[in-house]
Amino acid sequence: MSLQHALLGLLNYRPATGYQLKAAFKESIYFFWNATLPQIYRTLNQMEKKGWLIAMIEPQEGKPNRKVYKLTENGLKEFQRWLGEPSEVPQRKNPMMLKIFFGNQMDRDQFAIHLQKMHEYYANLLEKYEKEVKPVIQRYATLTGASDDARYWAFTLEFGRMHAEMVTEWCNKLLKAVNREKSSSKNNPHEKAREYKKRRTRI
């Protein structure tokens, strides 16, 4: 999925300024696709050159004029073409999983800190899904008149919620295992020697 097609999809609901598109990212699809405001404006300019959208200048009383982007017929065709093509394979790069993979080479306390931070991130994300994203779906359905689409927006929210739940449960499971290991190693002279050797190797 490219940023261009995300913008085409959002503009298919209604014309919008670059700032409004950034707000739409922040309030709706940010948990699986995000972009900065400069990236959005740069991409909008590229799309305008391709003829996928047109920019209309709207005067505002007491405020600077604003540029509103509207989808063209060619832009809609490109969006529909993209919807019909096979989906890309999801990216599998995950720095945290790489650290987990090499976790046995890490100090147990540091390993636990990594897990706690990961748990905290996904727990906060889960809370955000429930408290913030659900109301946004309802609001955007009313704002755009796309009440039928809201069901599909909810599908993506459900994916994010279930993934966050899985990760928090997984972190809890690993943290319990690490704590048990730390507890048993306190009275194990061989484990103490092993940890000492690791620290000496890192010095």
Structure notes:
This protein is mostly helical and 203 residues long. The radius of gyration is 24 Å and the shape is elongated. The model has no long low-confidence stretch (mean pLDDT 85). It folds into two domains: 82 residues, Winged helix-like DNA-binding domain superfamily/Winged helix DNA-binding domain (Arc Repressor Mutant, subunit A, Orthogonal Bundle), CATH 1.10.10.10; 108 residues. A hairpin with a 2-residue loop joins strand 1 and strand 2. The chain has a two-stranded antiparallel ribbon with strand order 1-2. Helices cover 69% and strands 8% of the residues.
Proportion of residues in helical segments: 55-70%
Find the count of extended strands (DSSP E, 2+ residues): 2
Shape: elongated
What number of structural domains do the residues give? 2
- Please state how the strands of the largest beta sheet are arranged side by side: 1-2
| Helix and strand sequence | HHHEEHHHHH
**Rg calculated over all Cα atoms:** 24 Å
Sum up the structure in keywords.
Arc Repressor Mutant, subunit A; 203 residues; two-stranded antiparallel sheet
What's the arrangement of secondary structure elements?
Blueprint: H1 3-11, H2 18-29, H3 37-50, E1 53-60, E2 63-71, H4 73-84, H5 95-101, H6 108-144, H7 150-185, H8 189-202
Antiparallel strand pairs: 1-2
Describe what is shown at a glance.
The chain has helices at 3-11, 18-29, 37-50, 73-84, 95-101, 108-144, 150-185, 189-202, and strands at 53-60, 63-71.
